[in-house]
Amino acid sequence: MDSNSSSGGPRARDLVMNHIHICLRFIELLVQMFRVLASRRRRVERTYELGYDKHRQIIHNLVYKSDETCYKMLRMGRKPFEKLRDMLYAHGKLRDKRCVLVDEQLAITLHILGHNIRNRVISTWFQRSGETVSKVFRRTIRALIRLHRMLLKHPVPIGPNENDLRWSYFQGCLGAIDGTHIPIIVRNNQKARFRYRKGFPTMNVMCACTPSKLITYILPGWEGSAADGRILRDALSRRNGLKVPNDNYYLVDAGYSNCEGFLAPFRGQRYHLSEWASDNHPAQTPEEVFNMHHAKARNIIETCFGALKQRWAVLRSPCFYDVKMTTLIIIACAVLHNFLTMEVPDDLLDTMVVEGQELGAEDDASNEPPEVISQVGPTDAWTAFRNNLAIDMWDSYH
């Protein structure tokens, strides 16, 4: 028994020493690995500093160097860009990231909206990864939408002292409403629903604007096959949808019913502005006179759509995003439209123009909301209102 214990002692000590030696070796290897990783981290940080300067130079050349370049590439001048950048930081909750500042995030987004460029092209232009560009774009779009409380205002009715002759007959009018089709890309199983009458898939977007071309309500998301009247009924039925006080109304085209709150032209009569371009065929009836004045005033919504699509190419051709993201993009473009209409009322692009989710002006919780129209349907009183208005216009016309 004593001999076994005495012989086992050295073997046990040797075994313990071997284990200690292995542990020490393992610790030494771990220390070496940490040193290598630390040196690589330092090299990455030095590379990042160089990359940061390079990216700032790209933004300087694109935005701050000249108004002409900024306007061509980002669809607005330097002063509006700087003000929008500050608004997005203060009210849109857009923040600088580790290597992408707010102005670069805004520049990337405006470049995509203004030129409808693919992610990989933007990645090359701004020297960013495709993942970074995608995250920046989505984050900035949502920040722009947060500005709607500041930029989408309640419309003011036309008063008795209106100086614009196009609107002087339409006292109590809030503006005009119409729909426009935005080309989109959808899955094969959705093409039938979104197919427009011209044969390609679109999104039917309803919009309301004031006589000064400010958008007050926008409802994207409906399929291109949906009728304008159906979309209007949906807008009125929503909890935070389109609000039309009982004493006010919007001008609409013949695609809508002539009903309380929505004044449509007489059907079967000349209407479009091109039909009134020549003085050789003056209006012959009260209905034609009404249609002529109605078309001149309601054309403001067509001008508004034209300005939107002229500035933002993403609205003119199918963009490379799904339906949900396209809906957000359309709302963001509407917010940008109002911002630029307020900041640059005589913008060059506006003068070049010839003829799911929703967003509108927020209700002021401190004021009692007026009684509003909640359904669409013709009434004798509204028909009489249009007839009397046509007679008044006819009397003034002669």
UniProtKB/TrEMBL annotation:
Its cofactor is a divalent metal cation. Pfam families: DDE_Tnp_4, DUF8040. Residues 177-338 form the DDE Tnp4 domain. The keyword Ion transport does not apply. Its main location: nucleus. Belongs to the HARBI1 family. Residues 56-145 form the DUF8040 domain. Transmembrane segments: none annotated. Keywords: Hydrolase, Metal-binding, Nuclease, Nucleus. One of its GO terms (molecular function) is metal ion binding. One of its GO terms (cellular component) is nucleus. PANTHER family: NUCLEASE, PTHR22930. It is found in: Nucleus. InterPro entries: DUF8040 (IPR058353), HARBI1-like (IPR045249), HARBI1_dom (IPR027806). This is DDE Tnp4 domain-containing protein.
